[in-house]
Amino acid sequence: MYRVMVADDEGIVIDSMKFIIEKEFGDSCQVECAKSGRSVVELAENFRPDIAVIDIHMPGINGIDAIREMKQFCTNTVFIVMSAYDKFDYAKEAIALGVMEYITKPMEKMKVVAVLKRAMAQIDGDRQKRSNDLLIKEKLETVEPIIENGLIYDILLQEHFEEDVNNYKTILGITENYGCMMAIICGDSQEGSRMTNAIGSSVKISGKYHEIREGVKSYFNCKIGNVMSNKIAVLIPCNESRIEYNERTEMIDRARELARFLRKKTDISFRIGIGGVKPLRELGDSYREALNALIATTGSVAHVDDLVIPCDYDEDYPKNLEKPLFEAIAKGDLNEAQVMVDKYGDWMCQKAGDGDLMSMRLKTLEFALYAEHIAYQNGGQTYHYSGRKDYLPQIMELETPGEIRDWFSEKIMSACRNVVSKREERSGDIIRNAKRYIEDNFDKDISLDDVSRVVNISPYYFSKVFKEESGLNFIEYLTNIRIEKAKELLENSGLSIKEICLSCGYTDPNYFSRSFKKNVGVTPTEYKEKLNV
Fold first, then answer.
1. Which residues contact 476 (CB under 8 A, 6 or more apart)?
2. Where are the beta strands (DSSP E) in 204-362?
3. Backbone φ, ψ for residue 451 (5° rounding)
4. Where in the chain is the domain with CATH 3.40.50.2300?
């Protein structure tokens, strides 16, 4: 159904248009008419036409002005202008208003029908687009909580967050590079800084999660995770790396109102902790701050900046380099570690240019010791109590910023390389032991689980490491061993095909024959016959 409005001060034109529309389009069109500019606007407010065919010259408000008025509330209407005057100025104004067609009188029937069909096609396209947009929005409303929870999960556990953060930001429309975390905790009641009946409350809020989610989003522009025990983690994106006092106060007030709202809505008690503003990659720290803030106070809302005296740094201190540097060491990321070492080394050399070598020595020693501490934790090394007794004498002998920088770089990168080499060594040991076991037991019914148990790692991780190191998966490698042994027995023994089959770990001769042909190109019998030719 299309709602069509025809506006002209001449009755014969209106009658002609109605006749054409009813004859060509029948019941698919509902037609209403107006004879003045004012009546056009008044009719349009109630009728909301899909198509408006309007004469430019009408008593009172002219057609162009009427269209301009209608544009304010008829945003999807397709306008067609008709006039007895083929004037450029009128056409120019009509085009500026987005009019689809400018028809001059007297109008030809076929021209009118063609224009109306084109208008209807445009309306159909717009309707389909709106329908598709609504469908996408409906699907997004279903999927969005899942995606938001994925973001929160990565923030808290820091699993592949570096790789995923840009995708999450794009999908969720996050343009900010900073944020803070809220920890919403519930219970039957509050005793000191603890909420009672955490388990029972987690069941309750799980059943009312949708209401809680809508309530939180009505108070904050945020991304929300799922229920974890009796807690819900919430990310509030921020434009700046810190919030001013007034913003913090407003945030706390809103959080207090939210806690009261949630209590009234669910009949469950809530407390809300708020962490400090951090870069998105460091929001796990903000969440821990939010939890610690609640532990440190008995209020219903606690902001970490109200409770903790923060560590201040010199204005030019490159605090933003510390965490990426130590994370790169822990991951064994040599390239990233080298970038951070170079940047921090440049800064220390610049500071030491004023003659303060002792501060550079101390900072270098501090970082070197901590880097090695990380390497011990992540690289599987053996800690030796006296292994670093020469560090202090060594660094005190260094007399220039460049020498100290080189020592700093060597120690940091050595720690990072140790993480890499120990992991590679560990992987190498796993693969060597696994291959030895396979070679010693290929004639038995062994499985991936059997081998992973021998090397004492999970089947999933063993499968991954084995493929990366050997280039073959477990089954492919075992099959190659068995087929090579079968070829050897076919060449050098008088055993029957069935005996060779059993000797190579196969229980079904038919399966053995198929596997042999797949890998060698001929059956065991054909292979043996070729040897005897």
1. none
2. 223-228, 231-238, 269-274, 278-279, 301-303
3. -70, -40
4. 2-107
Which residue, chain included where needed, has tokens 């349009």?
Answer: 44
CATH (residue range 144-307): 3.30.70.270
CA dihedral 128, 49, 112, 97 (to 10 degrees): -90
Angle between helices 459-470 and 474-492 (to 10 degrees): 60
Give the least confident one: 100-114, 155-169, 226-240, 319-333. Answer: 155-169
Positive or negative: CA dihedral 505, 508, 513, 516? negative
Q: What CA dihedral angle connects 464, 467, 470 and 472, to 10 degrees?
A: 160
Residue 378: band (very low, low, confident or very high) from pLDDT cuts 50, 70, 90: confident
Give first-to-last CA distance, the chain, whole Å: 85
Q: Show Cβ contacts of residue 524 under 8 Å, excluding neighbours closer than 6 positions.
A: 486, 490, 497, 500, 501, 512, 513, 516
Query: Does CATH number 3.40.50.10240 belong to domain 2-107?
Result: no
Which helix (DSSP H) or strand (DSSP E) does residue 82 occupy? strand 78-83
pTM exceeds cut of 0.70: no
Helix axes 209-219, 245-266, angle to 10 degrees: 150
pLDDT at 98: 80
Write the pLDDT tens digit of every residue in 264-311: 988 889 999 999 999 888 899 999 999 999 988 888 999 998 886 566
- For the beta carbon of residue 95, count every other beta carbon within 10 angstroms: 12
